[in-house]
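#lab-general

N.A. 3:47 PM
ok so I finally got the sequence cleaned up, no stray characters, all 164 residues accounted for. can someone with queue access submit it? mine expired

B.Y. 3:52 PM
send it over

N.A. 3:53 PM
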Amino acid sequence: MMTHGLKRRTIYSAGIASLILSVSFWIPIAALAKYTPPPNPSKPKETGTNTTRGGSCEGDSAAVLTALVPFSHMGQTISGHPTFTWFVPDRTSRPLQLRLFTRSGQLLYRTEMESQPGIMSVALPANLPPLSIGQSYQWGVAVRSECSFAECGGDGRNPSGAAC
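B.Y. 4:20 PM
back already:
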């Protein structure tokens, strides 16, 4: 049989544990990761979507894709094989293509997949060389169609200058 003092300590300990556990759910994940943006962040040149609409492809209604990246500065990673993430609002399955380029426009990686509504992500495969520390890279994901994506060049733009 528990004494009054032992019962009180047990209830007190359970209350403290519950409080700590409930408070931990309010701590943002970024705070847990101790993420701090770079001291002199450079802003991305473009933060729009990476798709085209209209043009010569009547009836080709490409889904608007949203890259899940920081808008206030260029994203950084500590992983040599990072994961690229984006949001697809459209429920219609469409062919997508993800491409990764060096700063000079050299294609490092390309993969194709079918879109799914919601958050999608692709990790750079472990069998590829890791990304170099301190180097800048550009990635993009776009709805693949015969008339819009095929015209895109290595810098993410088509010959007319419109974003791909």
